[in-house]
Specification:
The structure is a single chain. Helices cover 51% and strands 12% of the residues. The protein has 382 residues and is α/β, with parallel strands linked by helices. Helix 1 packs parallel to helix 9 and helix 7 crosses helix 12. The longest helix is centred in the middle third of the chain and has 22 residues. The two termini are 19 Å apart. The structure holds iron/sulfur cluster (SF4) (2 copies). The site of one iron/sulfur cluster has 11 residues, from loops.
């Protein structure tokens, strides 16, 4: 695995530091909204002068408590997210004024009904297709969320506020995308483990400008190091694309382990990767339509059909010079598990090996996963 920088802030440290920042912000009266998914148009929260905190949980610790209310055979991300709220052990949940959920997968949508009994949970009704009628319906949801924020906080959000927030968020997408696109360089200049950990850790930092500054500095540093030490040199390490469910809860036993076996993770087709960042909000369109269009186009498997994801994976395989595809599907995530059929076919069409892994947040399957990763790494290294 490529060396981590000395000042590398790991996920747990970032979570702790973010907690203190959040507490300070709350004491100054800042509005804080908790979200679980990239489909929520966070520009509207920014326009309300609020901060968004990403609550998606990645730890197995709160799962047993959640299983008192939720079925065991449910995605660990949903159970952990609910468990944190139920036990009141997540400071970010605690500091959120209210929660915004969405009708993405069935498990999450139904869990939000239970979560609403713990803390107000406002649910955006996301359609699962992308035709004109779906776009109209989703635009109405964008308008409804705008109104919800105004009513909840007793404020008025102007169109100008939203336009400014769109500019700010579009810039943030560019900054994050440039960082992720470091993976296009060959030899790989940075470990995929570092890329993923850094981006997830930013979810705990409520300040957009600060988030951009941290990532711009690291991007510049990595580029300089690559130019001076790696450019033009050949690397025998295979390069893989990681796709599938959000991977922060399984990164240690998958991405970290395969990189330690001599494989570079260079590309991420997942919602903590490039998926939400590739398309910007169109600043030439009316704002609510532009927001609706951008968010409806996110290539998550809860959309049906979701052929755009396969086209995107093909483009990524070419652009990042990918030698293999590793798909991480969280246990009981039906939409990604079913769509993996097409991901496997896409990899075959592109003549690159595919590995599909079903994973949860426990450490119990780490040994078995390592064995499968070792076989995949060996296949790629031949
Ligand atoms: S995988 Fe899909 S539903 Fe889950 S958080 Fe990402 S965008 Fe939302
Ligand atoms: S990983 Fe799958 S099951 Fe879990 S919340 Fe996301 S879409 Fe739903």
């Amino acid at each position: 695995m490529l060396k981590l920088p000395e000042n590398f802030e790991n996920y747990a440290d970032a979570r702790k530091a973010g907690f203190l920042k959040m507490k300070e912000l709350k004491e100054t009266g800042k509005k804080i909204v908790g979200i679980y998914c990239t489909f929520v148009p966070t520009e509207l929260v920014e326009a309300a002068d609020g901060a968004v905190v990403t609550l998606c949980a990645s730890s197995e610790e709160p799962i047993p408590a959640a299983e008192n209310h939720l079925p065991r055979n449910l995605c660990p991300l949903i159970k952990a997210s609910y468990g944190f709220g139920l036990q009141d052990t997540c400071p970010y949940f605690y500091f959120s004024d209210f929660i915004v959920g969405e009708t993405t997968c069935d498990g999450k949508k139904k869990m939000f009904e239970l979560m609403n009994e713990i803390k107000e949970t406002y649910v955006m009704q996301l359609p699962s297709s992308r035709d004109e009628a779906a776009l109209d319906a989703w635009e109405k949801e964008v308008v409804r969320f705008w109104k919800k924020l105004e009513d909840f906080y007793g404020i008025t959000i102007s169109e100008e506020d939203v336009k400014k927030a769109i500019e700010v968020k579009n810039r943030e997408r560019d900054v994050m995308l440039k960082f992720l696109e470091l993976g296009k360089l060959n030899p790989a200049p940075i470990s995929g483990y570092e890329i993923g950990t850094r981006l997830d850790a930013l979810g705990f930092n409520p300040n957009i400008e600060e988030r951009c500054r941290i990532i711009e500095e690291r991007t510049a540093e990595v580029l300089k190091d690559w130019e001076e030490n790696y450019k033009g040199k050949e690397s025998k390490r295979p390069r893989i694309l990681v796709t599938g469910c959000p991977n922060s809860g399984v990164r240690e036993k998958t991405i970290r382990v395969i990189e330690e076996m001599g494989v570079d993770v260079v590309a991420f087709d997942c919602c903590n990767g490039t998926r939400e960042k590739v398309e910007k909000v169109d600043t030439t369109m009316p704002v609510t339509r532009a927001l609706a269009k951008k968010y409806l186009n996110i290539n998550c498997s809860i959309m049906s059909p979701n052929t755009g994801r396969m086209d995107y994976i093909k483009d990524m395989i070419k652009e990042y010079q990918v030698d293999g595809v590793m798909e991480l599907v969280l246990t009981a995530c039906h939409t990604y598990a079913i769509e993996s059929h097409y991901v496997r076919k896409t990899a075959e069409e592109m003549n690159v090996p595919y590995l599909g892994l079903e994973v949860d947040f426990s450490s119990g399957d780490a040994g078995q996963i390592s064995t499968r990763l070792a076989a995949f790494a060996e296949l790629l290294q031949k």
